[in-house]
UniProtKB/TrEMBL annotation:
Keywords carried by this UniProt record: Amino-acid transport, ATP-binding, Nucleotide-binding, Transport
PANTHER family (alphabetical): CONSERVED COMPONENT OF ABC TRANSPORTER FOR NATURAL AMINO ACIDS-RELATED (PTHR45772), HIGH-AFFINITY BRANCHED-CHAIN AMINO ACID TRANSPORT ATP-BINDING PROTEIN LIVG (PTHR45772:SF11)
Family of the protein in this entry: Belongs to the ABC transporter superfamily.
Single annotated GO MF: ATP binding
Protein name: ABC-type branched-chain amino acid transport system, ATPase component
Organism: Beggiatoa alba B18LD
Record Pfam families: ABC_tran, BCA_ABC_TP_C
Any single GO CC term annotated in Swiss-Prot or TrEMBL for this entry: plasma membrane
InterPro entries the record matches: AAA+_ATPase, ABC_AA/LPS_Transport, ABC_transporter-like_ATP-bd, BCA_ABC_TP_C, P-loop_NTPase
Domain ABC transporter stretches: 7-263
PROSITE patterns for the chain: ABC_TRANSPORTER_2
SMART domains, A to Z: AAA
SUPFAM superfamilies membership: P-loop containing nucleoside triphosphate hydrolases
Length: 272
C-alpha cells in the first residue's frame, strides 16, 4: 500500500431522487500534494466535497482518510467529527467569514475546540486555569503565524468584512489552517480574484502543501491556477470521472478537451 495516500474515495455515488450527482467515482489523494477536481458546472464537484465533509450522506461508497496510523471512514462520521477527529477543513464557494469580527478574532474563533478543551469545559476554567491561558497564548501565536503568511498581520484588528475580496479569500484559508487540518478542501478559492491575487493564492497553496504536511483538494475553474500548482487532477462530467492524471496529461486529453477545456486548452485559456 502507498503510505502517502491520505484519502481514498471508492465507488462514491450520490443520488438526489432521480438525479445522479456523483456516479461511481473512485480516486486517491496524497499527502503533500494538491489534487484538483475539475469539470463543467453541475459535474458534481461541490457534491463530492459535501459528501467528504458530512453535509451529505453518500448513497453508496467508502471515503477513507488515513493519517498518524488512524483510519477514519468519513461516510460514517458526523460533520463535527469529520472536522474535529478526522481533521478535514473546508472553505466554500461564497465567503463565510464573520464580517463584523476582526481579522484576528476570525482566526481565534477557529480554534474554539482547543480553547474549550483547555478550559476543562467549565466557566471557571476560562478565568482560572493555567492550561487555558497557555492555550489562549498558543491560539494567538498560531493566528499571527498565519496572518504573517498571508501578509495580513497589520490588519489584525480590522473588521474582516472590510478587507478587499482577495484578502478575505486568503483569510478564509488561514482560518481553515488554524484548525490544523490534515486534509484541506478548497471550493473555488480563486473565484473573483484578479491575476496577481490568483498568483498570490497559488503561492500560498504551494507553501501550505510543502511546509505543513497536509493534502489539499482543490475545486477550481481557473485553469491557470489548476495547471500551475496541481500534482494530480481528477476530471468529472455529469457526475462521472472521465479522466485523471498530471496536468500535462489532462490538458492533452481529447475527452477532457471535448467535455470541458475546449480546443484552446493547450494555450492555457479559460474553459467556457
Ligand atoms: N441538495 C441537492 N438536491 C438536488 N440536486 C442537487 C443537490 N445538490 C446538488 N444537486 C445537483 O447535483 C448536480 C451536481 O451539482 P454540484 O453543485 O455538485 O456541481 P458542481 O460541479 O460543483 O458545479 P459548479 O461548478 O457550478 O459549482 C447538479 O445537477 C445539481 O443541481
Amino acid at each position: 500500500m502507498d503510505t502517502d495516500i491520505l484519502l481514498t474515495v471508492e465507488h462514491l455515488t450520490m443520488r438526489f431522487s432521480g438525479l445522479i450527482a456523483i456516479d461511481d467515482v473512485s480516486f486517491n489523494a496524497k499527502n503533500r500534494q494538491i489534487t484538483a477536481i475539475i469539470g463543467p458546472n453541475g459535474a458534481g464537484k461541490t457534491t463530492l466535497f459535501n459528501c467528504l465533509t458530512g453535509f451529505y450522506s453518500p448513497t453508496i461508497g467508502r471515503l477513507t482518510l488515513t493519517h498518524e496510523n488512524q483510519v477514519f471512514l468519513l461516510e460514517r462520521l458526523r460533520g463535527f467529527e469529520i472536522t474535529k477527529r478526522a481533521k478535514v477543513a473546508r472553505t466554500f464557494q461564497n465567503i463565510r467569514l464573520f464580517p463584523a469580527m476582526s481579522v484576528l478574532e476570525n482566526l481565534i474563533v477557529a480554534q474554539h475546540n482547543q480553547l474549550m478543551r483547555a478550559s476543562g469545559f467549565t466557566f471557571k476554567g476560562l478565568f482560572g486555569l493555567r492550561s487555558y491561558r497557555q492555550a489562549e497564548k498558543a491560539a494567538v501565536e498560531l493566528a499571527c503565524y498565519w496572518l504573517t503568511q498571508i501578509k495580513l498581520l497589520e490588519y489584525a484588528d480590522t473588521p474582516a468584512g472590510s478587507l478587499p475580496y482577495g484578502a478575505q479569500r486568503k483569510l478564509e484559508i488561514a482560518r481553515a489552517m488554524c484548525t490544523c487540518p490534515r486534509l484541506l478542501c478548497l471550493d473555488e478559492p480563486a473565484a473573483g480574484l484578479n491575476p496577481s491575487e490568483s498568483l498570490a493564492l497559488s503561492e500560498l497553496l504551494v507553501f501550505i502543501k510543502e511546509k505543513h504536511d497536509i493534502g489539499i483538494l482543490l475545486i477550481e475553474h481557473d485553469m491557470q491556477v489548476v495547471m500551475d500548482i496541481s500534482d494530480h487532477i481528477i476530471v468529472l462530467d455529469y457526475g462521472r470521472k472521465i479522466a485523471e492524471g498530471i496536468p500535462i496529461e489532462i490538458r492533452r486529453n481529447p475527452t477532457v478537451i471535448a467535455a470541458y477545456l475546449g480546443e484552446e486548452a493547450s494555450t492555457g485559456a479559460q474553459p467556457a
